[in-house]
Structure to design on (227 residues):
């Protein structure tokens, strides 16, 4: 799977995110090093005095061949990628890129490694993750994107929004994958008894440290005493 990492030059987490995604076997577009020997786009290449531009000077500079090439490099990578990980904190560019993925219907995860100002429109994203482990776990659960066994766009949306994906979380007792979704009234509900070992299962939502985001978890449920 090909992943576009959207972030800012100032973001301290981005290099580690790129490294961990690559270590997990993903093809990653790193805007800081889009190609061998290319260290990405910088306004200073157009004009060392770029920080004092007027709006009109900025509009003219946008037509500069370096700006055109820099934009094309990023946009081509966005079209190439199957999914986006927006790494916070980040600025306008990364947010426009992530918004493009949401609008295209491609999976987009917002990764929040440190406390941030709350933002309602992150609800556009497929999922909000508070750890890199969670990002990797979700990506691992997406399965193939094309060919045999590929998920449909609807699968993706269900998977990310309900938290219990088609290829499931595991039974805490025997480790069997629990297939289904937690969505109320779903045609494909998760099993309440493990198909592997018969363990009764209880699904619950866990909140993050700030109580803002929730995701589904499973635990073994004690046998009910009856009566
Ligand atoms: Zn089991």
């Amino acid at each position: 799977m090909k992943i576009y990492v959207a972030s800012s030059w100032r973001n301290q987490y981005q290099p580690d995110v790129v490294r961990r995604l690559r270590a997990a076997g993903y093809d990653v577009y790193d805007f800081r090093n889009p190609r061998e020997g290319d260290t990405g786009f910088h306004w200073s290449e157009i004009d060392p005095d770029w920080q004092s531009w007027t709006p009109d000077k900025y509009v003219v500079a946008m037509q500069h061949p370096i700006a055109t090439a820099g934009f094309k490099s990023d946009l081509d990578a966005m079209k190439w990628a199957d999914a986006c990980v927006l790494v916070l904190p980040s600025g306008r560019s990364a947010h426009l890129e992530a918004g493009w993925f949401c609008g295209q219907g491609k999976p987009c995860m917002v990764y929040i490694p440190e406390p941030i100002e709350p933002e309602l429109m992150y609800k556009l994203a497929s999922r909000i993750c508070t750890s890199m482990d969670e990002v990797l776990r979700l990506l691992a659960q997406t399965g193939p994107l094309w060919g045999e066994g590929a998920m449909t766009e609807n699968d993706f949306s269900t998977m990310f929004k309900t938290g219990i994906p088609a290829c499931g979380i595991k039974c805490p007792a025997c480790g069997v994958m629990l297939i289904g979704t937690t969505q109320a009234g779903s045609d494909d509900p998760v099993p309440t008894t493990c198909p592997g070992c018969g363990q009764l299962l209880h699904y619950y939502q866990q909140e993050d440290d700030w109580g803002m985001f929730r995701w589904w978890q499973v635990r073994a449920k004690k046998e009910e005493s009856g009566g």
Observations:
- The beta strands are 2-6, 27-29, 83-87, 108-111, 127-129, 169-170, 177-178, 201-207, 214-220.
- The CA atoms of residues 23 and 199 lie 35 Å apart.
